[in-house]
Amino acid sequence: MVTTHLNSHRTCVGNDRGFTYLALLIAIAILGVGLTAASEVWVTTARHRKMVELEWIGNQFARALGSYYAASPGLVKTNPATLEDLLEDRRYLTVRRHLREVYLNPFTGKADWELVLGVDGKVRGVTARIPGEGGTVVREFVRAEL
């Protein structure tokens, strides 16, 4: 006896209809929530790394400004007129380098430092603008007064 299996496939009836689609939608929603949480952690970590880098760069500027000031020939100490003076200090017979390069702001990718000027109009520090959700934050790095 030969039987045909034309109706051997189960057909969806009543409550079974659309279950796979609903399960897929729930899985996509859970995946979306998980990715949102992961992206928030990634953004926070990236901002923290940029803040650490900004602190290091700012301290390099402050240290270079202090070195330039301390290396002033004679009794009268002076600050540099520009940041480029920190790269090549030509007040001596040989060139002194107080800073390797004018570093980029890690938040903007540009050397968009605002100069903090002393009463003599010379550079005594730099200011960085840090863009954020709550507005722009300003961080200042100034040569320590002796």
Characterise this structure.
It is built from 2 helices and 3 strands, in the order H-H-E-E-E. By secondary structure, it is of the alpha+beta class. It has one domain. Strand 1 (114-117) and strand 2 form a beta hairpin. It starts with 18 loop residues before the first helix and ends with a strand.
Search tags:
38% helix, three-stranded antiparallel β-sheet, alpha+beta
Q: Number of helix segments? A: 2
Q: Domains counted in the coordinates: how many?
A: 1
Mean pLDDT: 83
The H/E string reads HHEEE
Strand order of the largest sheet: 1-2-3
- Outline the low-pLDDT stretches: none
Strand content: 5-15%
Class computed from helices, strands and strand pairing: alpha+beta
Largest sheet: number of strands, sense, barrel closure? 3 strands, antiparallel
Helix content: 25-40%
Number of strand elements: 3
Nutshell version of this structure?
The chain has 146 residues and is an alpha+beta fold.
